[in-house]
Amino acid sequence: RSNMLSSRLFWKLLLACAGLNLVAAVVFGVILSNWQEAQILGQMNLRLRDAAVLVRSDLGDLIDRGASEELQKRVRDLSEETAIRFTLLNVEGDVIADSERESLADVTKLDNHRHRPEVVQALTHGEGATQRTSVSLNVPYCYFALRADHGETPVGVVRTALTAASVQAEATGMRRLIWTLVAAIIACVLALSYWI
Question: How many angstroms separate the CA atoms of 71 and 179, rounded?
């Protein structure tokens, strides 16, 4: 065995095998990490969509009536329970309730949202999603918007949002786990390559 360990051929083969295994493990880690991040974003979009659908069905009549203290309170309560930001708009794009605002008076100070990308998509196609920095809060958000109709007539938009930081934190935690597993696999492969 001592002759084998001092053989240049042995070390060349070991390094070649270890190098190939290292490359394979890194490629596997990159693919798995990217796939997992896409899964997290997909789950987040589904969560935002489901929340918008529920709010539309629960508050659809109130959206049709316009801004009110009752609507603002309900939106704030829902946000506290779900950790999702809710913004309700009339069909003209005026904000009629926003869970990030304390009162209806604060809501009325917000800019018109009609030209926000997700709102344009929702009014045109029924729903829309985008990732961008909030103009009102200057914080990166992931948005989902859903048109609210009364019969066949659009009456407004329900928009849901999560901060991009919360989504990124989840993705970072998963990425750390994946790369820890990749490092463990590499260590095992190197050990096995040496002993086999």
Answer: 46
Average pLDDT in the chain: 87
pLDDT at position 196 over 80: no
- Partners of 141 in beta bridges: 132, 163
Q: Is there a contact between 142 and 161 (Cβ–Cβ < 8 Å)?
A: yes
* Token code pair at residue 93: 């794009």
Under the banding of pLDDT at 50, 70 and 90, the label for residue 46 is very high
Q: If we measure between CA atoms, which residue out of 146, 132, 87 comes closest to residue 113?
A: 87
Residue 140 has pLDDT above 70, yes or no: yes
Q: Tokens in use for 178?
A: 């994946």
What backbone phi and psi angles, to 5 degrees, belong to 154? -65, 135
In this predicted structure, what is the pLDDT of residue 121? 97
Query: Which residues, listed in sequence order, are joined to residue 153 by a DSSP beta bridge?
Result: 150
State residue 110's pLDDT score: 93
Query: Which letter does DSSP use for residue 135 in this model?
Result: T
CA distances (Å), origin 147, targets 152, 163, 185:
11, 21, 48
Whether the CB-CB separation of 160 and 55 falls below 8 Å is answered with yes
Asked whether the predicted pLDDT for residue 1 surpasses 70, the reply is no
Q: Strand 85-90 to strand 153-163: parallel, antiparallel, or no bridges (unpaired)?
A: antiparallel
- Taking a C-beta distance cutoff of 8 angstroms, is the pair 121, 129 a contact? yes
